[in-house]
Write a structure and sequence with these properties.
Blueprint lengths: L10 E5 L3 H13 L3 E5 L2 H11 L3 E5 L7 H9 L11 E5 L4 H10 L3 E4 L4 H14 L3
Parallel strand pairs: 1-2, 1-3, 3-4, 4-5
Helix pairs in contact: 2-3
């Protein structure tokens, strides 16, 4: 008998410009049962979000061209049926309280500092999904 997977059947969109980190996050989440679509830019995320309708969004903050703050503001401006209400996690190398506040004010539900341990990432995603009533 297999143990239950915390993220079983969750559809997650990961936005991360670093190939290695994108691969790490995808591998961790898929190993715990999630279906993951990973893209390297905010522009690509905005392009697929309406069709994908993910359960959770995980986005890096520091990306070239458009950062995670800009991405989440654009997402929050969308109608709910276009993905505007997707629960979102900011993933960033900046762990200070100012960065956390800025991420929450921009529209993320939670802020996670890199590096993140696999078990911690799974727990954060599962907790956010469980707490969402929208």
């Amino acid at each position: 008998m297999q143990p239950s997977l915390a993220l079983d059947s969750l559809n997650i969109l990961v936005v991360e410009d670093d190939d290695d980190i994108r691969y790490f996050i995808t591998t961790v989440l898929e190993a715990d049962g999630a279906t993951v679509e990973a893209v390297p830019s905010a522009a690509e995320a905005l392009k697929i979000l309406p069709q994908l309708q993910p359960d959770i969004l995980i986005s890096d903050i520091g990306m070239p061209n458009e950062d995670g703050y800009t991405l989440i503001r654009k997402i929050r401006a969308l109608k709910p049926d276009m993905g505007g209400k997707v629960p979102a996690i900011a993933l960033t190398a900046f762990g200070d309280s100012e960065s956390r506040i800025r991420a929450l004010e921009a529209g993320f539900q939670t802020h996670v500092s890199k590096p993140v341990f696999p078990e911690e990432l799974v727990e954060i995603v599962a907790d956010l999904f469980a707490s969402c009533n929208w």
